[in-house]
Amino acid sequence: GVQDSDAIAQRIAALAEENRDIHERACFNLNPATNVMSPRAEAILSSGIGTRPSLGYPGDKYEMGLEAIEEIEVIAAALCAQVFDAHFAEIRVPSGALANLFGFMATCNPGDTIIAPPASVGGHVTHHTAGCAGLFGLKTVAAPVDADGYTIDIVGLRSLAQDVHPRLITVGASLNLFEHPVAAVRDIADAVGAKVLFDAAHQCGIIAGRAWRNPLAEGAHLMTMSTYKSLGGPAGGLIVTNDADMAERLDAIAFPGMTANFDAAKSAALALTMLDWVDHGTAYAAKMIEVAQALAQALADRDLPVFAADRGFTRSHQLAIEAARFGGGQAASKTLRKAGFLACGIGLPLPEVPGDMNGLRIGTPELVRWGVDVEHVPEIAALIAEALTTDAPEALAPRTRALRERFQTLHFVGG
Ligand code: PLP
């Protein structure tokens, strides 16, 4: 009935506000898999263009009246290519997971073997049996691990590739601490006739900000990503490549393959996000890394077991804590949630924690967007350390909220 509808609508509005309160006032978001959009990108998402048709190519749309939408698509793709120093950008990609599926479809056939990083170095399920690689019919063999570098072991990869003849080798993960040996992987791939896909779901921000080597420049044939993590754009995916044949295959996979109409509001928001990277990207990326390194050091100073302590913790916007002491990564995340910190578990090349993950992942994209800088790190690290060691983490929540409420202005965004 009408009354029920009103009640449900009110409830949904209240839940949206509750979510904003959790993420923007009550808690510090330490999760690198999310971000806040710039206000002008957020505004264009609700501008009404998203429900208009967009089927077909710019200049040759099926439905009429789409001149404006055509121009948005062209601008968005051009800006994405520019930001990633790529010749081609495929923007009609609904998510990072589907970016990987598009990449698998562009490089492999069902029945082929691929090599991908395992979960112990942050490998993502999309590259494996349960994810879109497996659903597309690919057989995934786990890459050998260089535990110190938190990456693929090149010596082991060379002999594995000779054994299993992969069609594709993937690099990049849900946690990336040190640069991956992309050029060496490309070398190995060339020797066995495989392609290289770099999954930059998380690294795209610091790649866009020129603070991490660009995998395309190092030889990756294509780079997939999520647009709403470190990139700070709308929820979606993106693929860039310098390879004209690859671009043509991706284009056909995007349309008429896997999408028909594609949300023009999302494309417009992505374009505005790319402008933020053009104008502020270098500073934002550098600051994300600086704050991550300071946070890792501050947490280690408080006797938390930060991973890779002997190697300087991290070279990226992410870091990890060895979570066995806290009952596992998800258990630690639930503890932190009570104290007002949002994070989640991750795999580390360490002994397993039964029933949980053995690492806790932390990242700085959202902290830095809200103005957290190195000078604020000691106070935040002290609260995190206390939350992970106290018996009553919920008692810290008011202190965390009071601190969080001081950071209410967005940084490194235009408009
Ligand atoms: N690849 C990696 C390495 C990821 O961490 C994620 C995270 O979710 C994905 C792909 C999938 O991205 P999305 O959530 O945008 O589908």
TrEMBL record:
Pfam families reported in the protein's UniProt record: SHMT
Entry EC no(s): 2.1.2.1
SUPFAM superfamilies assigned: PLP-dependent transferases
Domain Serine hydroxymethyltransferase-like: 24-384
The entry's keywords: Pyridoxal phosphate, Transferase
Cofactor annotation: pyridoxal 5'-phosphate
Catalytic class of the enzyme: transferase
InterPro entries named among the record's database cross-references: PyrdxlP-dep_Trfase, PyrdxlP-dep_Trfase_major, PyrdxlP-dep_Trfase_small, Ser_HO-MeTrfase, Ser_HO-MeTrfase-like, SHMT-like_dom
UniProt keyword Transferase, yes or no: yes
Single Gene Ontology MF annotation: glycine hydroxymethyltransferase activity
UniProt cross-references to PANTHER family, sorted A to Z: SERINE HYDROXYMETHYLTRANSFERASE (PTHR11680), SERINE HYDROXYMETHYLTRANSFERASE 1 (PTHR11680:SF35)
Protein name: Serine hydroxymethyltransferase
Organism listed in the record: Sulfitobacter sediminis
